Amino acid sequence: AAAPGVHAVETCEAPPASGSGAGRFQVRFQVDNASFTADAAGTSLTSEPFAYAGAEWQLVLFPAGYKSAVESGHASVYLRLRADHRPHPLPRALAFSARLVGSDGGGAKGGDVARRTCSGHNFGFEKKGGRSWGFERFCQREELAAALSGGGGSGGGGHGEVVLEVAMGPAAPLLSTPNGLTNHGNTCYMNALLQGLYHVDAVREAVIDAAADSGAGGVPGALAAIFRALKLNENGRPAPTKALCRALGVDVREQQDSQEFRAALFAELTSHPAMPGEALYAPFEGRLLNRIKCTGVDFEKTWKEPFVELALDVAGSRGHVKHALARFTADELLTGDNKYRAKNKETDLGLQDATKGCRIQKAPEVLQLHLKRFAYDPRRDRMVKVADKLGFDEELDLKPYMVDQGAEGEGE
Question: Is the pTM of this model over 0.70?
Fold first, then answer.
């Protein structure tokens, strides 16, 4: 093991001489228990340099966290390009991952403790912070402490060793476009939507093809120009959106609702004869199965309802999208003044207690969730913004919110 303060690097998989392949390096940080305390917040440990793609790099570890990670209880890890070893030419975009390796001698049982991946970053000098990139919330500090070997750990004394492995390689072609979109004022809502639409292949190609085939101007032509700029990235600069703003009559000084903007954009696009509406909407189309069932009489009604987005309550959803979806699909009790008037073809059954609910019958290829960030406040007699956090996981299982398999209107 290295001496305290020396953070050694071992090459596990050397990149080819051309520098265009993958490389893998293992860094052994010497960490003492004081590194995890509040007094050490923002304090970093920097590895010895290692070579990749004609440049020298270092791994930087903040055991007690960096910036917001200090309050959230996370450790931070960053990959740094050394300023005095700039390659020529500079790698256009680089993908890398970092993983925390458990130790049989420490609190962990070996193998991966944590792993984070960046699919592409342009390590340049043109902007502040361009030479360093990584993971502010890499892992919980307790996980890092538990992975210590050699007598360390959150409850031990002295110092121990933390092993981090970093893998580096060229970014995937589509993810190597670092230019993004220009914000011309308060257009962040629009830019977020446009970048999301760009990554829906069917929408992107339909817009580009329709504009090319018809020589369309206006909204279709302006949007196609943005998509082409993102796709080709010919000059490496952010793509402007002024032409689209002018075509839509958008005031760049005003903040707008992203969901309302998406509806207006699609309406404008589909009004153009060269633009196939089904290509725009098809990836987002799903179907709900609604149901009303009376509790006191034998009456049940179901009907299908298409959707291109689901509107979810943020308030009261316990900080996670899965709880918001559970509330959306939960049964509602219709009683008192809200009783349901049940009628069949022959008889009026009058007002009845009933349950009303819905389930997803057909899931779309791309699920759009409209988060209801505004709610009516009766005390103020106006709409107020809901600032509650709503988290989500990398994978979302829709089965709990879909029609049961084998039931009427079986889920797809």
Answer: no
